[in-house]
Design brief:
32% helix, six-stranded mixed beta sheet, 319 residues, 10 helices
Length: 319
């Protein structure tokens, strides 16, 4: 298997008045990529400009960041042609690697806008190198800029930043450095959910060192979503036992839901569900479960009490 380290540059509207602004908020104007083999050696590169068809004026921030003029893009190829050339260059047995979580989503959104065949009709596994850096060297939660990681690892800076190819080049160097030191980082797969699961067979169940993740199929509303046994359940991801909840699912804000369960063998587990909406208005759940300390369990109980109190106050104001 090979690694395709991808970076994109995109443009957006200065005014938001274009009729396409909602369906294509970010129009890709450059594709850059590095191909690595299993030993993380550089074996190929891709770099092409894309001729825009929606936004014919560079956003002022984009122009300053990537130091590009609109006239340069007129020499690029149309997106569909460029994307097909890129995918052909990728080959067959590969996994995408990106700095952050947005590139694959926007690549697929641009493909859909141009009526191209989707990369996949379900979530795509990939490696988020920015997240891997945090797992390897920091607290797993922080997200650093690419140049910070380059400096931290003492990677040589031999080309400028902030173009698609150069950022793919540096991301590939950071990725190769980390994997050669800690190959176990490859277990930390991320999932792009531009196409959320449509059926139970496409749902994602993944277990990592410190937590488990479940991505549900789509539902019409929250009632149907939380009625699903897999969404609603609490399981210990270490011994796979079904657990009785100490605190049932509650929400402090209507978007994130939490529960508390206890495993006799491994201790307290916190469940978290993020309810997300597809472009078609359907809902799906991204559920994570992780072990927490007794103190963190007490904090969750206090949070539940505060949410209950706030809900009672709101009901009193309404009545």
């Amino acid at each position: 298997m090979e690694y395709i380290v991808l970076d994109l540059e995109w443009n957006q509207s200065n005014t938001g008045t274009e009729p396409e602004a909602e369906s294509l908020p970010f129009e890709i104007i450059e594709i850059g990529a590095i191909k690595l083999n299993e030993a993380c050696s550089f074996v190929g590169e891709f770099s092409e400009l894309v001729k825009p068809v929606v936004y014919h004026e560079l956003h002022h921030i984009t122009s300053k960041l990537i130091h590009m003029q609109m006239q340069e893009l007129e020499h690029g190829r149309p997106f569909a042609e460029t994307a097909l050339r890129f995918l052909e260059w990728c080959g067959e047995d590969y996994i995408f690697c990106t700095w952050g979580s947005t590139d694959l989503t926007e690549f697929q959104r641009n493909m859909e806008f141009h009526n191209m065949t989707p990369l996949s009709e379900k979530p795509i596994p990939y490696l988020d190198v920015q997240k891997l850096f945090s797992i390897a060297y920091e607290d797993r939660k922080s997200r650093r800029a690419l140049e910070y990681a380059v400096d931290f690892l003492h990677v040589e800076k031999d080309i400028p930043f902030h173009r698609a190819f150069s950022d793919a080049y540096y991301t590939a160097k950071v990725f190769a450095h980390m994997i050669r030191e800690r190959e176990e980082l490859l277990k930390n797969i991320s999932f792009d959910v531009y196409h959320a699961p449509k059926c139970r067979e496409d749902e994602v169940k993944a277990q990592f060192d410190t937590y488990s993740k479940f991505i549900s199929r789509q539902f019409a509303d929250k009632t149907a979503l939380f009625a699903d046994k897999e969404v609603n359940s609490s399981k210990c991801y270490l011994c796979h036992r079904n657990l009785r909840k100490k605190i049932k699912w509650f929400t402090p804000n209507g978007r994130h839901y939490y529960c508390l369960a206890h495993c006799e063998k491994h201790g307290y587990l916190k469940g978290k569900i993020r309810v997300r909406k597809t472009d078609e208005g359907m809902l799906y759940a991204v559920k994570t479960t992780k072990l927490i300390s007794d103190e963190a369990a007490d904090d969750l109980r206090a949070r539940k009490e505060h949410a209950d109190l706030q809900r009672k106050r709101n009901r009193h104001v309404i009545s």
